Amino acid sequence: MKRKTEKAYTEKEMMTISAARFIKDRDIVFAGTGVSMLAATAAKRIYAPKAVVFFETGGIDPTLDEIPMAVADPRVMSGTCMNSGLIDAFSILGHRKFNTIAFLGAAQIDCYGNLNTTAIGDYHRPTTRFSGSGGACDVASLASGVITFMQHEKRRFVETLDYLTSIGWYQGGDSRQELGFKRGGPLAVVTNLGVMRFDDETRKMYVSAYYPGVIPQDIIDNTGFSIDVSRAFESELPTKDELRILRQEVDPQRLILG
Amino acid sequence: MKRKTEKAYTEKEMMTISAARFIKDRDIVFAGTGVSMLAATAAKRIYAPKAVVFFETGGIDPTLDEIPMAVADPRVMSGTCMNSGLIDAFSILGHRKFNTIAFLGAAQIDCYGNLNTTAIGDYHRPTTRFSGSGGACDVASLASGVITFMQHEKRRFVETLDYLTSIGWYQGGDSRQELGFKRGGPLAVVTNLGVMRFDDETRKMYVSAYYPGVIPQDIIDNTGFSIDVSRAFESELPTKDELRILRQEVDPQRLILG
Amino acid sequence: MPDYSEIEDKLMSLPQAIQRFVKNGAQIALSGFTITRNPMAAIYEMIRQGIKDIHLVCHSNGQGLDVLIGAGCVKRVEIAYAGNGRYAPTCFRFKKAIQRGEIQFEDYSNYQMSLRFLAGAQGIPFIPTKSGLGTDILRKEGFPREIRTERKVASKKYEIIHNPFNGENDDVILLPALNPDVMLLHTQYVGEDGTIRIKGLTFADIEQAKAADTVIVTCEEIVSRSFIRQDPDQNSLPAFFVDAIVKIPHGAHPTSCFTFYDYDPMHLNLYKRAAQDDAAFDEYLREWVYGVSSHEEYLEKVGKETLSKIKADKVLGYAPGLDRK
Amino acid sequence: MPDYSEIEDKLMSLPQAIQRFVKNGAQIALSGFTITRNPMAAIYEMIRQGIKDIHLVCHSNGQGLDVLIGAGCVKRVEIAYAGNGRYAPTCFRFKKAIQRGEIQFEDYSNYQMSLRFLAGAQGIPFIPTKSGLGTDILRKEGFPREIRTERKVASKKYEIIHNPFNGENDDVILLPALNPDVMLLHTQYVGEDGTIRIKGLTFADIEQAKAADTVIVTCEEIVSRSFIRQDPDQNSLPAFFVDAIVKIPHGAHPTSCFTFYDYDPMHLNLYKRAAQDDAAFDEYLREWVYGVSSHEEYLEKVGKETLSKIKADKVLGYAPGLDRK
Questions:
Q1: How far is C313 from chain B (nearest CA, A)?
Q2: I need a surface site. Which of B134, C87, C215, D42 has the fewest CB within 10 A?
Q3: What is the value of pTM for the model shown?
Q4: Angle at which helices D92-99 and D265-275 pack, to 10 degrees?
């Protein structure tokens, strides 16, 4: 298992920054709660000042002086350019004019980035029931790209999902397009061990980067399906600026950073 | 032809009041421009204070201190309870919860109250092209009831429409319901000669009332299809109150009354 | 001097409104989203009146949904998301009820549910989307086949057709419209003329209200006709959509009401602890719902101190610096 | 001190905006309705630049549509209503063009066209309605079959299917979504951050803007970021939908712009007289469109006196007592 070394940053900070680094200027960023909200906010303040953060509830570009605890938090409606509703939010999410990047989380993920946020066990009588899709199924269907946050554990990185809530690369290759989706698909999976990406041909997950203090074998050991590590390199450390902005501006109360 | 006698009221005033008398309290009244706007406003001020006047453009319950010259006139947005748009307006028009009564006008009408506001002659190369449906087709399809204003002339009351823009009782009997409409249909046609209604069984137009100074034969002579006058009676004269409110409150500038 | 003459037939007490308009087995939609603008006062009153066999239709309801399920008022639910954000990643009573097989459920997504309300609002029988193609939301049906003939239950979960305007093979999902029996809407403002104004995000409240047969509105304030009509562009619903109007300050507590009050983290955490244990939850209901006769009495229990802590800054819309851990 | 840094890449002159974004043969949607908020300045500039073969998609455009058709810029139109209310029961140049067989046209209703824009805005391929069943809007097709394969022309005018959620025979019309190349939107306010605020009725402007590939906005005022963000509930479109922003006071003249100015009855009557005669209409164009190099010059011709007559009362939104005969 990964070596415990004294680090100048926490796992959550590393995950947040790793994800934030994917955001480019003018991206329209769909954020959920938790780490995804931190990553979206950090990205805008550090690398992509012209990116716009919005929420499925209809809040567009809030000031986020305080971290929302839910996507319906009044902080999501505060200082926005516009407050609308779900129908509007999803018309933006899927709009062909925009590069919409969405952050998601899940209970299970498979090697093609399909996600389960609905149930473990039998759907009708599950051993564990989760919240359900929310907007995740829509995001996975309609956004230009999806970045998923996961705790890297065998029981979460599985061969077969108990329930496919949100479409990824489906069964790999061109199978997503064949379903009828003209765009989108998983960009990356950001975990507590590293960053996974997807092969351009097979659409299968591979290890793109492992965090300092992690070795590729740690990721293999914690993944429930075979995963290619041949393209893996060690992630860059979080910079002083990244950490300062994340800690002082994004979540000073450490409501999510902990 | 109708005898010219000195009257204490004009044809337009008589038409407006005849139509307004159909409106009941709590009706949701869909108004267009011209006489229909006068009738809606008069109805609210005289018989149905709890009726609500709205417009296909989305203006709901404007004060109408001045008569709008079009359904997009800024006067339709002034003092309303809400300013929205067409999608909202039509969601009200067709709403099963409401008794929505709509006023329309047309270039041609047939014996079942179907209307033409599109073209005379060949559709592709008409001798006369009109404005087109606007919201008329939608009103005729979705409202609870339609009252149509017409100049009573043979060329307008025709056996066969050159173009069926707005559905009435279609081909009579149950044919409207068989098309898939659960409600609605023409209530009355108000002309410069009298008020026509539709038989409950055959759905064919008949003369319900003729104005003072008009005789049933005048209506027969000016109708392009055979019309039953056996149920016709002479209309009540406009009352002093009706005329006073219409002239002093509804259209003091006589923009539409002329 | 307020003039309620225009809405005299709609103004009533909460018990009256629930009694008159909410029947056992009713299909019900709730305003708000997770921890915001849930019609909590109305929900507590439904529980006190013992309304049973409710068929809930939700996109992402949180607190309101969970209390109703926990109190045993709900028979079936069509839903996209049951959670309270950081205060309950999955609503606790919802989770238990499904794991124990106590309620019938059907999963959709937020966009799908919103579109179904939109279709209901526009009076169109169904609405197309591509969202969900290839997922188990389509492959797995939650509702048992035999209830597909019951009132307010769609004859099918969905239908897939080829896009008739596109030559190539292009699948589209058709979703059935929703027309709930009742929509419970909590809002900030109702005018003396009955006009509704929602501040902040409207979620799918407006679509839900237009789709419903009956709309019960609870509000923080009833404002003057001149105030509500001075900027009609801001208003959300005309009076004629509304069947009952009840003034209930803090009617959304412990969820938030933008520009009036924040959510109540203390209460949400208290609820979180209670909801995870059956006995503790029963005790919660006894104390906070059955144990009080009205929302006023409930608010006395919440206490002035807490209410002042969560009081929103009018400009920001929330309570800055509130301890939300 | 205004700060345009957030919109520097979108702020441009009207000639630049039209040159950059409007190509011959483009499918174009216009803001407003009959005599209100038509993007007249942009339309005049398109005529001056000699844009040809336009495919207009409208619900009820009036003045803007008629001038464009009269100037020979329009090849085909999909439309519900071409009129100016009391000032033109049927738009004159539109009427002549169709009677002379000069343009291709397809009739729909206002609700149908609005729903088609809504479908385009939501990215769904079609949308159902029952409005129009049994009418010649379904029975008679305006566009020649051979153009059905051209870009931006729907492969079919409509499709009828049975409602798959209803056992009994229940026909529903499916209407194809619209996604215009360009939408020309005239509005009251744009914020320094590019946020759009439309005052008064929005018609189908918001759906049209979301449905379009490119949105050109002309506005009466560019207001401060703090003003536009102080009440986000009132705003109509976020900046990222907008491609070009042009400040053009009185940009809708002779049509009205709620709270800024009324329609100009003198000009509409002048137009009415001109539009009924070919030579007089050419003269009108020479004088009011080709004869001026910019909207500023056009407004000088309109004259300060007229502009002050039609100046709107800020509360009423129109010019009370204006002679509108």
A1: 27
A2: C87
A3: 0.97
A4: 20
